[in-house]
Amino acid sequence: MIIYEPPQPATSVPLIDLADSFSDDIEKRKKVAWEIHKACVDPGFFYIVNHGIPQQVMDDQLALAAKFFELPLDEKMAMDSRFQSSTRGYEPMAAQTLDEGSPPDLKEGFMSSVNADENHRYTKLNVPGTGLNQWPPSFPEFKVQYEAYVEKALDLGRHVARLIALSLELPEDYFDAGLEEPLHYCRILKYPPMPKDAKPNQLGAGAHTDWGLITLLLQDDVGGLEVRSASGDWIAAPPVRGAYIVNLGEMFPVITNDAYKATMHRVLNNTSDKVRYSCPTFVDPEYFYKVKCAETCLGPDGTAKYPEMTAGEHLRAQFQKTFGIAA
């Protein structure tokens, strides 16, 4: 007999090979899903390799980010997302505070989302934050390459969502309806080396959880991402060539009755004199998708810990909290 002992918190971020997740053999897919299940319980972050996106595409997207941030400041400021009702476009240095009460984050950013013209259903239904993406006029190839990358990242997000569904003993297509046209947000971020005159607790990205369903992070070789384990210790998540980092957002505690957590993380570019670039893609369900506890995750008495909500309501509240303005 092996005496039961409580599991210990994770001490590293696991790496999961997705090769078998593309197999026609359901048992092979379930084995990958089981690895994802363990990672989702703790630390809530995991690397994925053999995910189907070529290394060259990943490298090109990081190079594209570097070129964008080299544009003249005037051109970038003309796309300042703070003055756009759609909240798309350029995010100036120190415009966001992810850790409430801390100084602003030391990073620049750019964001695109669902490109909704006057004929899009979101526009016709007056969905908040609806609008067109902004693109730099002097850099036309940026839009072409950026949008092509987004499509590949969203396809990977849908694949990971199916594996997570399988990890919860749900039908693999459980999230498919919500992700047919995901309310995604794709960003590129620039983190300068940590300045000597940074304010106390001023980081590249303050400690925070992500807001939505799944985040796919592409990062360069500089590093700086740190993840808080179930024990409360911070774990480094250094770059792994060819890998994406996946983490769960705040929708998953609702869906799983707290079985899967949205894990706190932060970024500190303090070990290098190099600029750090990263490209997170937030793969969230469409605006009106009902986020609710899955049947396989209900408590013994059939109850859910959290009320149902729409994905849009949830994301708007999180945006207003961190930027201080309504989306």
Word description of this protein:
- The protein is α+β, with helices and mostly antiparallel strands.
- 27% of the residues lie in helices and 18% in strands.
- The protein has helices spanning 26-41, 55-69, 73-77, 121-124, 140-167, 251-256, 311-323; strands at residues 15-17, 45-49, 89-91, 108-112, 185-191, 205-208, 214-219, 225-228, 234-236, 244-248, 265-267, 276-283, 290-291, 309-310.
- The strands form three sheets. Strands 1-2-10-7-12-5-4-3 form an eight-stranded mixed β-sheet. Strands 6-11-8-9 form a four-stranded antiparallel β-sheet, with no helix packed on it. It has a two-stranded antiparallel ribbon with strand order 13-14.
- Helix 1 links the parallel strand 1 (15-17) and strand 2.
- Helix 1 crosses helix 5 and helix 2 (55-69) crosses helix 5 (140-167).
- The longest helix is centred in the middle third of the chain and has 28 residues, at 140-167.
- The chain is globular and about 55 Å long.
Rounded mean pLDDT is 91
Task: Please give the largest β-sheet.
Answer: 8 strands, mixed
Percent of residues in helices comes to 25-40%
* Shape annotation: globular
Number of helices: 7
Kindly estimate the percentage of residues that lie in beta strands according to DSSP: 15-25%
- What is the topology, as strand order, of the major beta sheet? 1-2-10-7-12-5-4-3
Distance between the termini: 56 Å
Q: Structural class per helix/strand content?
A: alpha+beta
Q: Which residue ranges are poorly predicted, with pLDDT under 50 across at least 5 consecutive positions?
A: none
How do the SSEs run, as a string of H and E? EHEHHEEHHEEEEEEHEEEEH
Strand tally: 14
Radius of gyration equals 19 Å
